[in-house]
Amino acid sequence: MKKTFVALAFLVLMTLVFTGCGDKATIFVGQNGIWTYTYIFNTDGTWVGHMKGTNEGVTFDLDIMAGTYTGDPKKDGYLSLKLTKMVNLYSIMAAALQNPSITSVTNETAALVSLPENEQETGTITILGGSFTASNGIVYTRR
Question: What is the model's pTM?
Fold first, then answer.
């Protein structure tokens, strides 16, 4: 039994070493009234924008956009972002119309859809003092 435990512990340790368990996503959070917005920058160069909040009895908890980035979100400086996916807003409206008693919207209700190449947008954010301000005025702070 002890040998099995040691072998299992060794396998777990090797898995952690080779999968880079020290690499974690960098997260920025911003607030706008009842809404909490989160940008998650994964170590593989992808990012996700998430929205959470409740409005008129409906809870929204879903990824609303995603894409790729270059730069280091762990440091102050510039990040170049490319938007490659967005939530289909029509699917949210359709779900509400089909079920007026809907109480939550997630990515099961409103999936992220890939944007055609000609609709993919690029932009740059500047991280300063661990924060950045989006074009809509929301300040996002690194967590």
Answer: 0.79
